[in-house]
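Objective 1b. Sequence-to-structure analysis of Lipopolysaccharide biosynthesis protein.
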Amino acid sequence: MSNVFTNRHVLSLAGNGVMAVFSVLTYSLLYRFLAPADMGNWVFFQFSFLLLDTFRTGLLQTALIKFYAGADEARQRSVAGAGWLLALLVTGGFGLLNALAWPLMSWFTDAGVLVVLRWFGLALALTLPFNVATWVLQAEQRFDRILYIRLLNQGSFIGLIFGAFLLDRINLHTVMYAFLLSALLTSVVAVAARWSRLENLPYRTGAAVREIFHFGKYSFGTYLCANLLRSSDTFIIKFMLGPAALAVYNLPQRLLEILEIPLRSGLATAMPSMSAAVNRQRQGEVTEILLKYAGFLTLLFVPVALGAGLLAEVLVGLVGGGKYAGTEAATIYRIMLVSALLFPLERFLGVTLDIIGKPQLNLVKVLLALAVNVGADIGFIQLTGSVYGATLASVATMLASTVYGYVVLSRYLPLPLGSMLPLALEEILRRGASLFHKLRPSKS
């Protein structure tokens, strides 16, 4: 039994589960404590911050993991130091940009825009050490330490929010302070524990810096466009329908976190196996892994989506509170759940394009999805005059991205989608039989 709790698959699942649970819990508290307009502006800040962080994470995360994992100690020091140098340059650039933006704040009156302009530079600086620590620990497959970091960061944030509520000081600004303080605490612990490898900064080499940068520029493009895709709804809804409508639309998105837990964990554990198959030139094995994982997750999503759809009003009430009962949130959630059945296949098609060495095609896939989403958002919102328009746009985007990914990847790998679910079901039955055999009492 102890092996279960040290298994990398279990720890990866636990880490993603913690993030999802804390995310839902945090938003549940904020939806209850904040006025709808403040809640919408907080969502706006979060998406704006994540979009800016894309410039750092997209450039460095995949590249650092790729060159750090499995390397000798000297190489790891060089890669970690080079990663830190690039991270500091990007973060410092945004800090300078933020300082230049401060004199312009008097030009704006929107509360959400003012919070972004006031705090994005400091927020990027305070989150840097624990973000680098997470990337390094992922390369080292120390998912236990990643779990500790996430627990500390999200747990302290929730504690500070609840403390502000008890002191009757809860508002958009105190939530912002809680976010910054939790980031500072987590980063201090990550550096003190030497998980961030900041001490390796002097060991950087010019060759390692160039290597990380040239690889990272491709993953950056994909990561940036993927975040623009997620953020485009936020910006369009806020400025076309207002922050209160954004709060309603964001609520069912938070509830979709229950599906993101197994999806992220599946991607994290499938990618090394797929990479190994590519390096050994076993294309059939790459296809088999893709179909098994995507099929298994799709089968898993069906009963979860059915159950969540039936309980949509209850879940909306639990997370959002009574003031969101009777809004569009429950219906939007049901539509999103149906669309989410394509999540596993769509996500694995994109990841596989990266793994087989076609990151530029994955970038085109995300660019296509972004263009479809923006155009459909504007068109459908104008047509419906409500957040239902953005929901319909997200369905159209998912369909376009999945079809394009399948058509392009089929040029390089055989993709018999008809065998996806049977292959996954066969794997489930095989593993179930193996587990039953292990648990069955032996005859003496």
